[in-house]
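Page 37, continued from 36.
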């Protein structure tokens, strides 16, 4: 998927920038930039794309991304046309040379360099680390500039030493962007994320880009590094995983609510992507 290059140095050439989001929904395009980015979702849920990873996010989601890794967080449709503020998040941007301006201690610099290297694929941290970072981030909004710098240093130290993380994007993902394609690919992305639970036809998606179906398939696969069908199925299976966490939905309910027309296809694609049947996935959650 092609993406947009953005400038996040909102206040000049700052090595650290902190942004607080308190809104009715998350609003952004699929983009990348030359800073490291830490995203903490205090309150919200929806879907996120990081590189070639497609997954869900919810309260206390904590993700670190290295420079030039395309990404987007988008709320579920339940957030549309809501006036009440349902989203609260803190985003920290920092340059890769931030620590080199603070110290020449090679042990420290090597630790941070290793963290940034791992973050080139996107790192999602589990509860133990997320809870530690949460306590620091909750205090950042009321601190002054000096205290915030100290807090960011502490956060990076915790992340660099944390073991409870998982990689998001694959080892083979490469950011193949072209700014002129940004509007087209974002139209496609927005359409798929909003309509994955419905029947999606190749012709209607190709029309969004004013392309023939064959040309669009080549265009999309080159940028997303997977076929349109695979991309849609990953969105659907990710949504199914979220629904399977609740006993309120039967397996059949999850199948149809995720955009599949029959349980046979649902089970086949679920096992291909998750390595197990939906029933096995639910049993593992319960156990």
């Amino acid at each position: 998927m092609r993406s947009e290059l953005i400038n996040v140095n909102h206040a000049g050439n700052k090595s650290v920038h902190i942004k607080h989001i308190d809104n009715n929904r998350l609003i952004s395009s699929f983009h990348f930039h030359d800073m490291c980015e830490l995203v903490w979702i205090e309150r919200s849920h929806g879907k996120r794309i990081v590189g070639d990873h497609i997954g869900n996010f919810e309260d206390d989601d904590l993700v670190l991304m290295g420079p030039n890794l395309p990404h987007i967080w988008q709320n579920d449709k339940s957030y549309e046309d809501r006036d009440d503020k349902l989203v609260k998040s803190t985003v920290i941007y920092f340059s890769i040379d931030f620590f080199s301006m603070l110290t020449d201690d090679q042990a420290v610099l090597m630790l941070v360099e290793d963290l940034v290297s791992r973050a080139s694929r996107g790192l999602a941290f589990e509860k133990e680390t997320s809870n530690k970072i949460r306590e620091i981030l909750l205090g950042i909004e009321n601190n002054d500039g000096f205290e915030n710098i100290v807090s960011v240093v502490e956060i990076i130290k915790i992340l660099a030493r944390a073991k409870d993380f998982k990689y998001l994007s694959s080892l083979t993902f490469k950011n193949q962007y072209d700014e002129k394609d940004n509007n087209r690919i974002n139209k496609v992305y927005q359409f798929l994320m909003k309509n994955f639970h419905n029947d999606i036809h190749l012709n209607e998606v190709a029309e969004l880009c004013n392309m023939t179906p064959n040309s669009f398939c080549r265009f999309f696969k080159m940028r997303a590094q997977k076929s349109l069908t695979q991309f849609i199925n990953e969105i659907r299976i990710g949504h199914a995983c979220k629904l399977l966490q609740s006993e309120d939905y039967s397996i059949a309910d999850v199948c149809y609510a995720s955009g599949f027309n029959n349980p046979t296809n649902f089970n086949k694609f679920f096992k291909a992507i998750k390595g197990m049947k939906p029933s096995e996935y639910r049993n593992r959650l319960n156990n």
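The radius of gyration is 20 Å. Flag for discussion at group meeting. Residues 1-7 have pLDDT under 50 and may be disordered.
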